[in-house]
Amino acid sequence: MPILPTLQNSIDTYYPGTKLGITEYNFGGEDLSGTIAQAEALGCYADANVYFATLWSGNPFIYAGIKLYTNYDGNGSSFGDTLIPAKTDDVSLASSYAAINGADKGTVSVMLTNKSFTQEENASISMDNADTDYQAAAVYEVSGDSSDIRLIDIVENIDKNTVNVTLPALSAAMVIVTDDASDFDGLTVYDPNAITEKTVTFDNPEDYINDKGYVVIPVEDAEHLKNIKITADVSAELGSSWGSAGCAVCINAKDKNGTDFWTSKSYQLSLGTGSTATVDFDGTFDNDGETVEGTIADGKVELQKWWDASEKQEEGDVINVTYKNIQLTYEYPTSESVMGDANCDGQVTIADSTAILQSLGNPDKYLLSDQGALNADVIDNGDGVKTSDALAIQAVDAKLIQQTQFPMTQAEYDAAVK
Length: 418
Fold this sequence. Notes:
Elements lengths: L2 H12 L6 E5 L6 H16 L4 E4 L4 H11 L11 E3 L9 E8 L2 E11 L6 E6 L9 E7 L7 E6 L6 E6 L3 E8 L16 E8 L12 E4 L6 E12 L6 E13 L4 E11 L1 E9 L3 E4 L2 E7 L3 E11 L8 E15 L16 H12 L1 H4 L3 H7 L10 H11 L12 H8 L1
């Protein structure tokens, strides 16, 4: 029995004018099945003219089904407000819902689902009776083991108003079809191999000198550390015209078997103001002459000077190094890191601000994951998660700033929202 049409028929018969509402629902699903169920539920509700529906609890996959309709691109873009007819050959395998905005036929939003657990779906979206010449389509998809919504394709070869889209097994997609291909200018298609960089800067390294006189720099995420860029003023006590300091990043490391060892990575700084050196990290270290896989064991590195050479070295010249700036760069696969995404659902919304405030107020109950804490640190990146990060994410939700501006300094944020 078609439940919603039957209910509507009863309303029309006995309570004409009463709106149809669903006060509580949840179709479950801790994976893509939850996304598909939610996407199909919203499509059915729209098709049956349901006035409101209240989701009872959820998870990132279920929320992704909502976001496909309400915020598929992370910038507030949504499914159209006027339904148009849409159908598939076999609703047991795939479903579709389509809409335009008002009377504007220039953009058509099409929700597609592939319910097969094993077979991809080669979908052809045909708009045979349209009097608009469509030029391009953007495909925003949820698939695989992630609840992230990703722009996976921009179709530019639309022929006779037919868009061909391939959906992976068990997936859902919002396809945006437009009569103006420039609508998609500047968009970047998701690349699973792309890298996102995060930089943590220490502008006053001398504040990190230990009791032995060495600068000790904290490393917050050893697994993803790409390099350390060192800037220093290097001077010669006897005024040599040339000189250099041989230095090392000293590390307490641990190999992949869990065995601790001490190691170092060398660098050299030349005489002068603002001398620089970069020390790379690739997950391997020297252990007594053997290159082994490992990681920094104790969350810090120590900068030591081991030797110096200069024009007047034989006269007793000494090269002094004053560190001015230390910059640590971390690399993350794009799929892992979205700045501002504190709850790691692949989107930056007001829910991330709430997650931050909850974690600050009750960390025992609402502790952010390690990745969530890295994503949340959007203001003065590197100094930890704080209230200002939550406020900045609220500013994104209010469209005062863009998520792509993260990370930013407090001064940059204040200027942007002034």
